[in-house]
């Protein structure tokens, strides 16, 4: 019935604190997080165990239960170490519960695990855990524990604490005979429906009488006949701990479904049970009970989440108001000098001064700090100051740690000093801290309530409980304890109280292990790997440092704790480099494209690497601080070397006609004047253009005005990889238009490739012909013929045809064109082919038969641009050896398919915008005579129009009969009749396709 009640609401599962923003390699080593500022441990959610966690925390915060369990020693329960031995009597459930309680009390972790305990219940799968309701679970747990404790002194533990009785009585109105029946209970189930609160419900159950009357008489055994009678119930024996289950989940028999009763249901913090009891002669105090736990169900009746409000009777936790929690420093808001809180030195001194003899165990110092400022060392200071112990060590002029580092005390002089410090500077703080802690922790009238939600533990105010009277999130189980139960003063704020020795030592050992793990993890997290670059192994070349031999020899890796100081680092490096003589300067270096550059020299030997912001993987240059290989080297990020591509025009043997660009890498300090480029390249003067993009398109080049030549490379926005072009002023005009714009693509390529395709049989030769974009195609052709050593006659009857990237020969280029006019790019390939290039009045066309064209198989033709379509068709048919008049021409479109037919057969090719290089297709079929139209006609066969009507009805309200009809007729698979059509048109004209 409660099958899915325990589906988790994962939004309320607390966040994992491990590994956030840390390196993956350290993640596995990360020990569990320490306790939060409340200093209480939560319980991890194992998947659907929030109800179990709430119940276990309630039992844990029932000190009498916890201590009764702890009082059972190994001689009665056995020992967990023996649990796998076949003949050993080990009572696993109580042992696991003991251990869990010990962990909750003492183990410094944010949340404990219940895995071992649920294993001891024999619950191995999630399914088994989800089978139980929290009220059921309470009984199951008690019964399991009771069974497990049979034969020990703890056999009556549950009964002693939780067992009560109810007496049901029927009184005969005739003979006054009382017939009674006693009922045992471990918890009371009370109605929620139509009841205003707990007292109301108890009144209905234990005060109101039921009268047997009229039609409903009672058979009295004594009178032996049907009589009038009264039935009542009373609480006879009250247990020390009263557990009340609220019937929030009901079944609606009309709707036949489960529902959650969310109406208002009040319950008092203190309740007097006297009116509900059979005997009422005792003192009122005997009937007083105090609320100490409220298990809350959040969600609907088919799922949700449980958490619990618990009163920390023994003041084990660090309790603060909730508002303080959301603003961690708010409880200190009345401190005028808030920076003092940020100074851990001041606070630690203040705490130690309060101690007699100023001596205290280091662990306690941490706890006192937590109590004073409401936040732990790890939370507040660790990031900045490292672990507490380390901090104390570092300030050895103030704190004296014992040799085993377990206790700390103030050094005598400094305690005097500190006292005066405090009196002078923050008397206010000192006072406030003291009063704050006493106000929060020691006022008896202020009960310490916590909201324990799996791993998360937060302080709440007592009045927050009222929020759980009603609603989707509301109280589900109530736990009261007899007000007369007093806690011994020794138990107050003492988590070790009554914990058996073996568990104390187990927890102490586990805490030490945790500390070690955390320290290890801490040092892993604080380790940086440094790359040391040794000056003597470097040389200064081309504006940057380069290893003399190899990178591996010149670079040493060093792993170092970043909490150590620069002085420590220098010392370690000295030890590492036994050969080192003289000064050692450590500088942060940086790899830039030009090489290694020294950015900043490290100063301040007493600062930690953390403080001087050394990060993992930093490159450190180790040198004498002045020179490398006798060269004084520039340092600082200002003069970081830039690696630039410098292009300049070299005068070639061909004269100014041929512009040959030489591109070379050059390194300049970024704070040098841009004009230094001239000196570097030994160019007397000229124009500088810069380009900060990878592309060398003309719009990306900008000319530096003469007055800006004094600006630095950085000021001009130059980066590594930027390009700089230098033009001597004498050749400026050929590269720049009058507007100062870049004309040609700057390119070091100044040739074209020509393949000899003039002789079919010969082997394919190719030559490179140097050229510029202004070279005329004729010149290239003649040069190629010379290079190929071909017959001069070929000059009269050959042409150059560009070869595209698929190897296809394109339309011949007219001889008179320059390369630029012909749209040819430097470096492209041309074929030297037999046949004349078309004249300016001629068209060079490709053509093919049918619409299925295989690229490269087209035929070619040269015709005057003024011939008619009809003539062109005839020439093409002739070339194919075809005759007849059942053909027409179509232009091939850009996706290599037959496009529109050339209908006007008498039109001239140039009128139809046919250009050289176009492909025409010879298609079978006669075009209609001029003045006639081709009209496609579809024959509609009425086949199931109602069906279509129905289909389209939902979607559209337009002219459905027509739309439906046309849709139907054009649907594939329907009969389609084409009458008097020369060629099919693939789609319906839009005007007829009415449905769309
Ligand atoms: Zn009777």
Automatic annotation (TrEMBL):
<dbReference type="Pfam" id="PF00443">
    <property type="entry name" value="UCH"/>
</dbReference>
<dbReference type="InterPro" id="IPR057763">
    <property type="entry name" value="UBL_USP40"/>
</dbReference>
<dbReference type="InterPro" id="IPR028889">
    <property type="entry name" value="USP"/>
</dbReference>
<dbReference type="InterPro" id="IPR018200">
    <property type="entry name" value="USP_CS"/>
</dbReference>
<keyword id="KW-0833">Ubl conjugation pathway</keyword>
<keyword id="KW-0645">Protease</keyword>
<dbReference type="InterPro" id="IPR050164">
    <property type="entry name" value="Peptidase_C19"/>
</dbReference>
<protein>
    <recommendedName>
        <fullName>Ubiquitin carboxyl-terminal hydrolase</fullName>
        <ecNumber>3.4.19.12</ecNumber>
    </recommendedName>
</protein>
<dbReference type="Pfam" id="PF25822">
    <property type="entry name" value="UBL_USP40"/>
</dbReference>
<dbReference type="InterPro" id="IPR001394">
    <property type="entry name" value="Peptidase_C19_UCH"/>
</dbReference>
<comment type="function">
    <text>Deubiquitinating enzyme that removes conjugated ubiquitin from specific proteins to regulate different cellular processes.</text>
</comment>
<dbReference type="GO" id="GO:0016787">
    <property type="term" value="F:hydrolase activity"/>
</dbReference>
<keyword id="KW-0788">Thiol protease</keyword>
<comment type="similarity">
    <text>Belongs to the peptidase C19 family.</text>
</comment>
<dbReference type="InterPro" id="IPR038765">
    <property type="entry name" value="Papain-like_cys_pep_sf"/>
</dbReference>
<keyword id="KW-0378">Hydrolase</keyword>
<feature type="domain" description="USP">
    <location>
        <begin position="41"/>
        <end position="483"/>
    </location>
</feature>
């Amino acid at each position: 019935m409660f099958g899915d009640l325990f589906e988790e609401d994962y939004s309320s599962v607390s966040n994992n604190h491990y590994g956030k923003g840390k390196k993956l390699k350290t993640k596995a080593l990360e020990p569990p997080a320490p306790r939060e500022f409340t200093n209480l441990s939560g319980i991890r959610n194992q998947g659907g165990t929030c109800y179990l966690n709430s119940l276990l925390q309630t039992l844990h915060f029932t000190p009498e239960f916890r201590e009764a369990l702890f009082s059972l020693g190994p001689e009665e329960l056995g020992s967990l170490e023996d649990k796998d031995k076949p003949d050993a009597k080990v009572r696993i459930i109580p042992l696991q519960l003991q251990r869990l309680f010990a962990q909750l009390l003492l183990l410094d972790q944010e949340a404990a695990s219940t895995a071992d305990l649920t294993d001891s219940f024999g619950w191995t799968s999630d399914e088994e855990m989800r089978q139980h309701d929290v009220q059921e679970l309470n009984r199951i747990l008690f019964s399991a524990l009771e069974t497990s404790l049979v034969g020990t002194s703890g056999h009556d533990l549950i009964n002693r604490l939780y067992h009560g009785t109810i007496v049901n009585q029927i009184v005969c109105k005739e003979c006054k005979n009382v017939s009674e029946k006693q009922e045992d209970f471990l918890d009371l189930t009370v109605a929620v429906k139509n009841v205003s609160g707990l007292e109301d419900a108890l009144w209905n159950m234990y005060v109101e009488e039921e009268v047997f009357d009229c039609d409903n008489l009672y058979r009295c055994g004594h009178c032996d006949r049907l009589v009038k009678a009264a039935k009542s119930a009373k609480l006879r024996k009250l247990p020390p701990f009263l557990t009340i289950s609220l019937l929030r989940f009901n079944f609606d028999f009309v709707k036949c479904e489960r529902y959650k009763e969310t109406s208002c249901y009040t319950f008092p913090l203190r309740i007097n049970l006297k009116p509900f009891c059979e005997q009422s002669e005792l003192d009122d105090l005997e009937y007083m009970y105090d609320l100490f736990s409220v298990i809350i169900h959040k969600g609907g009746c088919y799922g949700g989440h449980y958490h619990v409000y618990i009163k920390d009777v023994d003041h084990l936790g660090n309790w603060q108001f909730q508002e303080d929690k959301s603003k961690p420093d708010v409880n200190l808001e009345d401190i005028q000098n808030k920076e003092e809180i940020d100074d851990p030195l001041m606070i630690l001194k203040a705490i130690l001064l309060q101690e007699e003899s100023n001596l205290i165990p280091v662990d306690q110092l941490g706890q006192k700090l937590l109590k004073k400022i409401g936040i732990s060392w790890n939370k507040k200071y660790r990031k900045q100051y490292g672990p507490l112990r380390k901090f104390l060590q570092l300030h050895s002029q103030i704190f004296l740690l014992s040799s085993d580092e377990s206790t700390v005390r103030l050094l005598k002089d400094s305690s005097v000093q500190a006292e005066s410090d405090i009196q002078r500077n923050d008397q206010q703080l000192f006072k406030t801290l003291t009063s704050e802690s006493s106000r929060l922790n020691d006022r008896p009238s202020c009960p310490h309530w916590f909201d324990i939600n799996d791993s998360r533990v937060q302080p709440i105010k007592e009045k927050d409980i009222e929020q759980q009277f009603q609603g989707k999130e509301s109280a589900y189980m109530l736990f009261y304890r007899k007000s007369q139960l007093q806690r011994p003063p020794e138990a107050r704020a003492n988590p070790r109280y009554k914990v058996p020795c073996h568990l104390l030592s187990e927890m102490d050992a586990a805490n030490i292990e945790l500390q070690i793990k955390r320290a290890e993890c801490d040092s892993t997290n604080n380790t940086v790997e440094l790359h040391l670059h040794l000056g003597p192994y470097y040389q200064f070349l081309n504006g940057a440092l380069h290893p003399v031999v190899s990178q591996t020899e010149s670079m040493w890796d060093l792993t170092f704790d970043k909490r150590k100081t620069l002085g420590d680092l220098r010392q370690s490096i000295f030890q590492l480099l036994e050969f080192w003589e003289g000064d050692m300067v450590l500088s942060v270096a940086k790899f830039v494209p030009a090489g290694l550059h020294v950015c900043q020299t490290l100063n301040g030997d007493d600062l930690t690497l953390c403080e001087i912001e050394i990060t993992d993987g930093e490159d450190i240059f180790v040198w004498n601080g002045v020179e490398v290989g006798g060269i004084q080297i520039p340092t600082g990020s200002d003069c970081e070397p830039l690696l630039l591509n410098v292009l300049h025009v070299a005068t070639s043997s061909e004269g100014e006609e041929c512009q040959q660009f030489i591109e070379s890498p050059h390194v300049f300090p970024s704070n040098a004047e841009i004009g230094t480029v001239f000196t570097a390249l030994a160019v007397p003067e000229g124009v500088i253009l810069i380009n900060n993009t990878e592309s060398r398109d003309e719009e990306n080049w900008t000319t530096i005005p003469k007055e800006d030549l004094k600006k630095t490379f950085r000021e001009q926005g130059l980066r590594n990889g930027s390009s700089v072009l230098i033009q001597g002023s004498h050749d400026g005009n050929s590269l720049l238009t009058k507007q100062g714009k870049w004309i040609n693509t700057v390119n070091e390529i100044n040739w074209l490739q020509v393949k000899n395709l003039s002789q079919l049989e010969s082997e394919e030769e190719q030559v490179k012909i140097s050229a510029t974009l202004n070279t005329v195609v004729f010149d290239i052709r003649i040069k190629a013929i010379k290079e190929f050593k071909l017959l001069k006659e070929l000059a009269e009857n050959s042409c150059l045809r560009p070869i595209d990237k698929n190897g296809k020969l394109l339309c011949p280029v007219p001889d008179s064109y320059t390369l630029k006019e012909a749209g040819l790019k430097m470096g492209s390939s041309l074929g030297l082919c037999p046949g004349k290039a078309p004249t300016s009045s001629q068209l060079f066309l490709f053509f093919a038969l049918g619409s299925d064209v295989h690229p490269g198989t087209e035929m070619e033709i040269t015709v005057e641009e003024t011939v008619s379509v009809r003539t062109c068709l005839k020439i093409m048919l002739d070339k194919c050896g075809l005759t007849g008049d059942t053909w027409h021409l179509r232009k091939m479109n850009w996706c290599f398919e037959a496009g529109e037919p050339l209908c006007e057969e008498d039109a001239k090719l140039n009128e139809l915008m046919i250009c050289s290089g176009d492909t025409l297709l010879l298609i079978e079929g006669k075009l209609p005579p001029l003045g006639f139209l081709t009209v496609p006609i579809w024959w509609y066969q009425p086949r199931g129009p109602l069906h279509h009507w129905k289909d389209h009805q939902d979607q559209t309200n337009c002219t459905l009969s027509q739309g439906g009809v046309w849709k139907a007729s054009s649907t594939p698979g329907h009969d389609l009749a084409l009458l008097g059509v020369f060629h099919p048109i693939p789609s319906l004209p839009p005007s007829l396709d009415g449905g769309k």
